[in-house]
Amino acid sequence: MKNIPTLFEWAGDMTTFETLFDKFYDKVLKDDLLQELFQNLSPEHRKHVAHFVAEVFGGDKLYTNLDNGSHSKMIGKHIGKMLTEEKRKRWMALLIETADEVGLKSDPEFRSAFIGYLEWGTRIAVINSQLTQNPMQQEEPMPNWGWGETKGPYLP
Ligand code: HEM
């Protein structure tokens, strides 16, 4: 395959990501374990997370350019939150459930990369949430996530 699409292109467009996180945070706000953590956040929170993940997957840089975010700012949001493994697992479970419900691409290659990123990102969030100061420099670049070992999209 000559032009390998980014994970963002393979998944769809910005609406794909915004819909995924919109439905996800609807669930989070009804969840016994996670509700408290998220109940006072602004309505923009879900859009920011959608933009962040879309940008990491190779989409337009809306988190950086529209939301005035950066990798360091995102890391900073988790500092001191004292997230637990139980909460991380619930966050993952609800997002994967939502992905199926909204019909996010479900081919093995895409889901492998998607889950790989979520495992990485959520575990880092838990680690950083135990800290009292942000360890990341402001100028650190955003992460880029690709297809990984599967090397590309599913080809029938
Ligand atoms: C891949 C994993 C994750 C990504 C990409 C991510 C992304 C983000 C981003 C971009 C923000 C900032 C939103 C804004 O600017 O409004 C944020 C904030 C937040 N995240 Fe995460 N997050 C992840 C995992 C988690 C997990 C596992 C939890 C909890 C179980 C969590 C809890 C929070 C909370 C509570 C905030 C808001 C903090 C505040 O503004 O007071 N995150 N996250």
TrEMBL record:
<dbReference type="GO" id="GO:0020037">
    <property type="term" value="F:heme binding"/>
</dbReference>
<keyword id="KW-0349">Heme</keyword>
<dbReference type="InterPro" id="IPR009050">
    <property type="entry name" value="Globin-like_sf"/>
</dbReference>
<keyword id="KW-0408">Iron</keyword>
<feature type="region of interest" description="Disordered">
    <location>
        <begin position="134"/>
        <end position="156"/>
    </location>
</feature>
<dbReference type="GO" id="GO:0046872">
    <property type="term" value="F:metal ion binding"/>
</dbReference>
<dbReference type="Pfam" id="PF01152">
    <property type="entry name" value="Bac_globin"/>
</dbReference>
<dbReference type="InterPro" id="IPR012292">
    <property type="entry name" value="Globin/Proto"/>
</dbReference>
<keyword id="KW-0813">Transport</keyword>
<protein>
    <submittedName>
        <fullName>Group II truncated hemoglobin</fullName>
    </submittedName>
</protein>
<feature type="binding site" description="distal binding residue">
    <location>
        <position position="48"/>
    </location>
    <ligand>
        <name>heme</name>
    </ligand>
</feature>
<dbReference type="InterPro" id="IPR001486">
    <property type="entry name" value="Hemoglobin_trunc"/>
</dbReference>
<dbReference type="GO" id="GO:0019825">
    <property type="term" value="F:oxygen binding"/>
</dbReference>
<keyword id="KW-0479">Metal-binding</keyword>
